[in-house]
UniProtKB/TrEMBL annotation:
It comes from Saponaria officinalis. GO terms for molecular function: catalytic activity. Residues 3-202 form the Endonuclease/exonuclease/phosphatase domain. Pfam families: Exo_endo_phos. This is Endonuclease/exonuclease/phosphatase domain-containing protein.
């Protein structure tokens, strides 16, 4: 796994070996720089290794944590705390106290991660005894006192299991990452990826400095608060009068994305294209019918009674009203019936834009809508729609934990209204 992913840095816990012996195992992978703590008896042992271009130096090491300095231009920029929490709840408080003292002394941006060995909340535990979580109250107070911010994660929620069967099986989220506020300013796209638990009782955890960085095209969107200012309305009036071909768009970082998904065979997928195929297959199966097509004669026989049902016919007055062309007044009424701040469609223009700027844009927009209604010809750009996946639960893992919603353009809403 280390070689396949070409990691820059590794941290191993419970090595049950010496630092030099572990280093010899990973030297061929490029981890020429290393540090750690040797095994004591038959338990423990920590190892940290990094490649030559990573500017780390070991500042301190003990059996429960290692502190590294990240140095650039002979200056310490931030600290990395690699933690192995005590399995026994009674011994954990001394570890948090010691870590707190180091954090106060260093007074620099920092990242802290590892096997914390402490459940924060009931949501991070599945199975076992319910109720009070030993050590959680003190640990959460300590976290708040240290101003620790959770690093977001992707993948399976639980990172540890006792590997027992049936009702004795227990899952917990013990491996976590935290950072200081100023460290997040340095690396705003950081995130952790949880891999499935396979060969050990713990899941491998990957810290990725660009996990939440997604270079994708995001559609332009009018900010509704701008429309409260006269200067903005004046600018819209002037710009609307200009003859411009095309539309204004922009690119920005999109924080909301799906980095991994589990299919119904229990397999996890991390490739963006494969994730799309998993969702496509799920929704095709969901919205497809399994009812076989009936032969025409069988269908006619089974539905013959429907053809004998007397249906009322339309009166001439009703027909004339249906054939009547749509008016500008109906357009205005439809515009102001729409929620002003509802999410816009692909064109990025909410209903409040047409409501606030109707004096400037009314004629062009009215002509466009009436042409679509009276001729039945709708421009392709108007009829575009976003399909958005909304999570039904926190930390969704499979396609059935999302619900699709559609966001169409406001002009299309007006036409259909």
């Amino acid at each position: 796994m280390v070689s396949a992913n070409n990691y820059d840095f590794i941290f191993l816990q419970e090595t049950k070996s010496t630092v030099n012996k572990v280093a010899s195992m990973f030297g061929h992978s490029g981890f020429r720089n290393f540090g750690g703590v040797n095994v004591e008896g038959r338990s423990g042992g920590l190892f940290v290794g990094w490649k030559n271009y990573c500017n780390f130096e070991v500042a301190f090491a003990c059996k429960n944590f290692i502190i590294l300095e990240f140095i650039e231009c002979n200056k310490i920029l931030w600290y990395l705390f690699l933690v192995y929490g005590e399995p026994a709840a009674a011994k954990r408080r001394s570890i948090w106290t010691s870590l707190g003292e180091w954090l106060a002394i260093k007074n620099k941006p920092f990242l802290l991660f590892g096997d914390i060995n402490q459940v924060d909340f009931l949501d991070d535990k599945l199975g076992g005894r319910s109720g009070v979580i030993h050590g959680a109250e003190w640990y959460n107070k300590w976290k708040n006192m240290m101003n620790l911010i959770d690093v977001p994660f992707k993948g399976p929620r639980f990172t540890w299991t006792n590997k027992r069967d049936d009702e004795d099986r227990l899952f917990e989220r013990l491996d976590k990452a935290y950072a200081s506020y100023d460290w997040f300013n340095l690396y705003p796209n950081v995130g952790t990826k949880h891999y499935p638990i396979q060969f050990s009782d713990h899941a491998p955890i990957e810290v990725n400095f660009s996990l939440n960085k997604l270079r994708k095209k995001k559609p332009y969107e009018v900010e509704s608060w701008n429309l409260e200012f006269d200067d903005c309305l004046q600018m819209i009036k002037q710009d609307w009068a200009q003859q411009i071909n095309g539309s204004v768009t922009f690119r920005c970082l999109c924080a909301n994305s799906i980095h991994c998904i589990r299919d119904f065979n229990g397999n996890w997928h991390y490739d963006e294209k494969t994730i799309g195929h998993v969702f496509e297959e799920y929704f095709i199966n969901l919205f497809s019918t399994n009812t076989p097509d009936l032969p025409s004669d069988v269908f006619m026989e089974s539905h013959a009674h429907l053809f004998n049902v007397p249906l009322p016919s339309l009166k001439e007055g009703d027909i004339s009203r249906l054939e009547k062309h749509f008016s500008a007044q109906e357009f205005r009424s439809a515009v102001f019936q729409l929620g002003p701040l509802k999410s816009p469609g692909p064109d990025g223009i909410p209903a409040i834009f047409y409501q606030k700027c109707s004096f400037f844009v009314k004629k062009d927009v009215t002509d466009l809508v009436l042409m679509a209604l009276n001729t039945g010809n709708i421009a392709r750009e108007i009829n575009r729609t976003f399909i958005c996946l909304i999570p039904k639960v926190d930390g969704p893992e499979s396609p059935d934990q999302f619900r699709p919603i559609s966001l169409c353009n406001v002009l299309m809403k007006i036409i259909t209204k």
